């Protein structure tokens, strides 16, 4: 049966001409490209087009329906706007402290969990839970947790004799309320990523170090940390991009103008305030491109500092 | 061969799925009706708020709320052949969603709290021609000040025109808890209290309640989102105003006038009688409950006022006084929602019919049941309103005496600038004069850069 089949294939007059074979191959390829069209159209419509439209809008005074070309005036307005630079300051302030606290703390927790003989998965789940919580829901709960009179944080501080804070009701402490929330929400992700790297470090290195008489701390300092470089670079870059785009939690906690007194208004919130509450789409678009440039430059610096290859 | 079959099968399956959905869509209800005066016409109505097509339960009272189907059925009965479709959106982000809908012409009728911004874009239909040719309709049905206050400037008009009919009413007033006044032995607020009276009585009622021993606060007001309205009303009470003009080129702000500075200093004074969290909208969690610890609530609104008072058994406790009024008897935020017809509507006559229906007794009673406030005078005669006359009488009075011209700039930057500076003053970053000078400077610069 199989022999007959081979014979049939081998018959010269039954062979498919080269030209038609190519045509069929092309036809098959075209079919698969057809399947790509919906997602390609989606990308064009919802990603590429808005990027170009936003760029065009940044040169116009626009309220969505009436437009007037004004050249670079929107960029000038944004770059000379005190609230914009205040929002840049807030974004960096919150971002710096979030990363500076969350990454080392997450790494320490991951190291502790990694060295725990039992219950690793339990701790992984517990620490990762905040990260799967919606940041909007978490921010709403944090507003109660940080309530100046009824909040559990102030209650705990008072119980141990420490001074309490007004948290979100005071511009000097409101940024720290956001940092606290951001660290709490992000740390689970850091722990999981660090744990994955920790478990990938060869145990032979630790065994060799032990034979050479290295203490546990020395092993951590001279084996673990140098082997975590790639992970730290990844966390630094993704953390910074996320921090520079921060919007959801500050919108929930302080509204579009980052109350109190614009103390938690980030660049994202500034864009939202001007674009979607004041119909100043030109200003919002210009601010978006300025924010894009800031993120681009900062990510480039981060890549250089962390020596991470793209 | 197998490849060819699977390819064919895949194409067949895809075609079948498409056909199936096409048939489903074709069979679904909502197609135009073929008979009647309005045959084949559809009016798409956008509504903002917690509305639902089906019956639901009021989360506060536990009572059943009829769905929007009630309105649909009645309107379609009154207008044979017509079809009503609702597009319901939440209050969150309503401005940008409405903008998108108006730009794309998705609805015929819109609920438009920010009507001034949209009228200026030329996306709304002027209503005066419809009113003039409709002998059955009169704007006298609306509560005083409502029609005039919702007028706006069109893209080319020099004078204010009517682009929307008053639809849902709203007002601002001062609410207080009589029990706390009794506990402290303080006389109730007068019908038209002064700033001094509020300050004096707030001071007396801050501290440990002499009867219950609980911590009480004399006053509460939002120090963030709506603080600009509290300040403007305080200034209005002593003869001040936000400024003047309606078209942006005519607008002049008076944010740092002596009256505004005095108003902000008054807010800074009474802040000491309020809980710590007013700038982050905190500290009022017990308000409108039996455990309430706040004596006077400034800048209150009517949303669910009756329902919550009734459900919590506070009928004997909650009372209302008017906000501060100027010499002409005007003062306080003018709020609410008008309804308007989109310029791109294909069924404008039917849309006008919907506008009349939505402001009729039938529809207004329905909306009142759902917890929002009516905009028509006849509501005062409804049995449902009369039984809560003590509470609702002052609310209707407040609705007819807001400050005009209204704060039409309050959806944009000037409001955010003013609010941020009030917050700066309330949190001690700047004194009242410095904060308002900065607000005036930034708002004026913003006006000039438009």
What does this molecule look like?
Chain B: InterPro entries: Bact_solute-bd_prot1, SBP. Chain B: This is Carbohydrate ABC transporter substrate-binding protein, CUT1 family. Chain B: Keywords: Cell membrane, Coiled coil, Lipoprotein, Membrane, Palmitate, Signal. The complex is a heterodimer of chains A (310) and B (450). Chain A has 310 residues and is mostly helical. Chain A has two domains: 14-57, no CATH class; 76-305, Orthogonal Bundle (MetI-like fold), CATH 1.10.3720.10. Helix content of chain A is 74%, strand content 2%. Chain A has a two-stranded antiparallel sheet with strand order 1-2. In chain A, strand 1 and strand 2 (67-69) form a beta hairpin. In chain A, helix 4 (82-115) packs parallel to helix 8 (171-200), helix 4 packs antiparallel against helix 11 (229-244) and helix 5 (120-132) packs across helix 8. Chain B is of the alpha+beta class and 450 residues long. Chain B has two domains: 42-170 and 336-399, Periplasmic binding protein-like II (D-Maltodextrin-Binding Protein, domain 2), CATH 3.40.190; 173-332 and 412-449, Periplasmic binding protein-like II (D-Maltodextrin-Binding Protein, domain 2, 3-Layer(aba) Sandwich). In chain B, 39% of the residues lie in helices and 14% in strands. A five-stranded mixed sheet of chain B has the order 8-9-12-7-13. Chain B has a three-stranded antiparallel sheet with strand order 5-14-6. In chain B, a hairpin with a 6-residue loop joins strand 2 and strand 3. Chain B is globular. The N and C termini of chain B lie far apart (68 Å). The A-B interface holds A 28, 31, 61, 63-66, 73, 77, 82-83, 143, 147-150, 166-171, 174, 253-257, 259-262, 273-280 and B 7, 93, 95-96, 99, 102-103, 117, 121-123, 155, 223-225, 275-280, 282-283, 285, 411-413, 416, 419-421, 423-424, 426-427, 429, 442, 449-450.
């Amino acid at each position: 049966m199989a022999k007959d089949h081979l014979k049939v294939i081998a018959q010269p007059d039954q062979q498919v001409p080269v030209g038609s074979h190519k045509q069929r191959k092309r036809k098959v390829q075209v079919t698969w490209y057809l399947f790509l069209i919906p997602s390609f159209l989606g990308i064009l419509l919802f990603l590429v087009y808005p990027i170009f439209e936003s760029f065009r809008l940044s040169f116009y005074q626009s309220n969505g329906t009436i437009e007037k070309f004004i050249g670079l005036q929107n960029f000038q307005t944004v770059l000379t706007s005190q609230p914009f630079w205040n929002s840049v300051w807030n974004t960096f302030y919150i971002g710096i402290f979030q990363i500076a606290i969350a990454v080392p703390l997450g790494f320490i927790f991951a190291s502790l969990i990694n060295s725990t003989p039992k219950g690793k998965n339990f701790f992984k789940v517990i620490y990762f839970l905040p990260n799967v919580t919606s940041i909007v829901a978490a921010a709403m709960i944090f507003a109660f947790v940080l309530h100046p009179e009824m909040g559990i944080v102030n209650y705990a501080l008072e119980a141990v004799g420490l001074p309490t804070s007004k948290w979100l009701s005071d511009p000097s402490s409101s940024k720290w309320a956001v940092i606290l929330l951001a660290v709490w929400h992000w740390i689970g992700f850091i722990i999981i990523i660090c744990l994955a790297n920790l478990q990938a470090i060869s145990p032979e290195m630790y065994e060799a170090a032990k034979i050479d008489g290295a203490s546990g701390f020395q092993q951590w300092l001279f084996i673990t940390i140098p082997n975590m470089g790639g992970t730290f670079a990844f966390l630094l870059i993704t953390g910074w991009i996320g921090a520079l785009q921060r919007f959801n939690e500050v919108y929930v906690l302080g509204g579009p103008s980052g109350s109190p007194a614009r103390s938690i208004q980030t660049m994202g919130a500034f864009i939202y305030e001007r674009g979607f509450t004041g119909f100043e789409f030109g200003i919002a678009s210009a601010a978006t491109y300025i924010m894009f440039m800031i993120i681009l430059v900062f990510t480039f610096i981060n890549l250089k500092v962390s020596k991470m290859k793209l | 061969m197998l490849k060819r079959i699977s390819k064919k099968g895949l194409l067949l399956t895809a075609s079948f799925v498409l056909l199936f959905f096409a048939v489903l869509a074709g069979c679904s209800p909502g197609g135009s009706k073929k008979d009647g005066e309005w045959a084949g016409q559809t009016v798409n109505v956008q509504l903002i708020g917690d509305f639902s097509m089906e019956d639901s339960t009021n989360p506060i009272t536990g009572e059943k709320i009829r769905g929007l189907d009630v309105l649909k059925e009645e309107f379609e009965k009154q207008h044979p052949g017509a079809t009503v479709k609702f597009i319901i959106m939440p209050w969150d982000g309503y401005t940008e969603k409405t903008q998108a809908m108006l730009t794309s012409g998705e609805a015929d009728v819109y609920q438009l709290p920010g009507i001034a911004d949209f009228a200026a874009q030329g996306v709304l239909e002027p209503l005066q021609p419809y009113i003039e040719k409709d002998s059955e309709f009169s704007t006298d049905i609306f509560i005083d000040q409502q029609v005039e206050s919702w007028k706006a400037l069109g893209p080319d008009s020099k004078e204010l025109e009517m682009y929307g009919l008053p639809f849902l009413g709203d007002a601002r007033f001062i609410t207080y808890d009589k029990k706390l006044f009794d506990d402290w032995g303080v006389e109730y607020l007068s019908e038209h209290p002064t700033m001094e009276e509020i300050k004096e009585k707030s001071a007396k009622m801050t501290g440990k309640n002499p009867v219950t021993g609980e911590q009480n606060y004399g006053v509460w007001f939002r120090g963030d989102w709506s603080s600009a309205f509290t300040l403007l009303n305080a200034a209005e009470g002593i003869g001040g105003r936000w400024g003047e003009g309606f078209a942006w080129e005519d607008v002049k702000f008076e944010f740092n006038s002596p009256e505004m500075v005095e108003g902000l200093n008054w807010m800074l004074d009474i802040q000491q009688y309020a809980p710590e969290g007013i700038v982050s909208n905190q500290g009022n969690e017990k308000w409108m409950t039996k455990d309430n610890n706040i004596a006077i609530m400034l800048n209150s609104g009517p949303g669910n006022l009756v329902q919550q008072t009734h459900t919590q058994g506070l009928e004997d406790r909650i009372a209302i006084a008017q906000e501060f009024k100027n010499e002409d008897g005007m003062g306080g935020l003018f709020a609410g929602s008008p309804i308007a017809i989109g310029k791109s509507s294909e069924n404008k006559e039917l849309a006008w019919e919907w506008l009349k229906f939505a402001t009729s007794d039938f529809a207004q009673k329905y909306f009142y049941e759902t917890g929002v406030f009516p905009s028509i005078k006849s509501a005062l005669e409804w049995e449902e309103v009369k039984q809560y006359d003590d509470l609702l009488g002052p609310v209707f009075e407040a609705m007819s005496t807001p400050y005009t011209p209204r704060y039409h700039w309050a959806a944009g930057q000037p409001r955010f600038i003013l609010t941020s500076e009030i917050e700066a003053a309330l949190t001690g970053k700047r004194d009242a004069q410095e904060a308002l000078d900065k607000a005036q400077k930034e708002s004026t610069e913003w006006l000039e850069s438009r």
